[in-house]
Amino acid sequence: MKVRIAPSILSADFGHLADEIRMCEEGGADVIHLDVMDGRFVPNITFGEKVIASARKATSLPLDVHMMVVEPENYFESFAGAGATGMTIHVEAAPHLQRQLARIRELGCLAGAAINPGTSLGAIHEVALDLDLLLIMTVNPGFGGQEFIPASVDKVSRARRLLDEMRSHAALEVDGGIARDTIQKVWRAGADTFVAGNAVFSASDPKAEIEELRRICLETV
Ligand code: DX5
Ligand code: ZN
User: Fold this and answer.
1) Residue 204 and residue 187: Cα distance in Å, rounded?
2) How remote is the CA of residue 69 from the centroid of ligand 2, in Å?
């Protein structure tokens, strides 16, 4: 399995967003993670279509949009038009999950489902084959820089088993508190895609940090 590092621009300097994204690309990032928050699903507000379009101009890397919003379907077309490569919606905000995932694929994007720490994996079981990505939140969403929830490691192992049993080829992503001291545990549990905000952007050398996170996963003990 390949280690995919997805820096979250939530922790970037928005005054120099294009430079920050280019820096991640030069550092070997595999994906750019964009956190859209609406002040309703989560208490915080971030950005929408315009910032996605600016990110699209700055890089040719895949843009994975993590939608922490209610009624995410209201934004599918505009985000796809702005250049999103994938859209990940929260099952807690998606009563018609199968239809919503199918719509994301219809728009030519990769379809992802995210689950909060308090949500059981059962919530995605029936849609395992409709997924290109499963995002296990390893913090409660809303803010960068929070502490990794240790019980997530076991949940990631169970998610890996579920995807394998269902013969799903979905990426298994973790998001929240991913850093040097946590990444190897979730990699060994079966995650392959790692969102990192604070760990990358607060590092003295963000480019080197991307490589370091990847190296730690692959290091043998
Ligand atoms: C949290 C967001 C994350 C956030 C992660 O609600 O979904 O993507 O940027 O930040 P860190 O890596 O700082 O925990
Ligand atoms: Zn995120």
Assistant:
1) 24
2) 12
